[in-house]
Amino acid sequence: MRIELDDDLLAHVALVVFAKLRRNEPMLVSWTDPAGSPAQAWLHPHATIVARHTPGADTSIDRRRAERMMIAANSNLGLRLADDPAHLVAAPDAAKPVPA
């Protein structure tokens, strides 16, 4: 499965995901797809994660937002992308999962 996020959200999700995985901490990420179906992905340190930003996109990090996302990622519920106001589109892909 491939998940497409807007560049701003992607920058923040990638920061949180890569920080967790660098520390060998698996995490849960959940979202609602455009059809309204809930989806979840369990990310672990051995997963291949690829984050691709739009060339020239402003991907500056809002520290408070990143901190809120890290707190959520460390919780039992994991990082819920629906809690973050941003564009989210899920599209099937034969490649390995690409959450952010």
UniProtKB/TrEMBL annotation:
InterPro entries, sorted: DUF7882
Domain DUF7882, first and last residues per copy: 2-83
Protein name: DUF7882 domain-containing protein
The organism of origin for this protein: Agromyces indicus
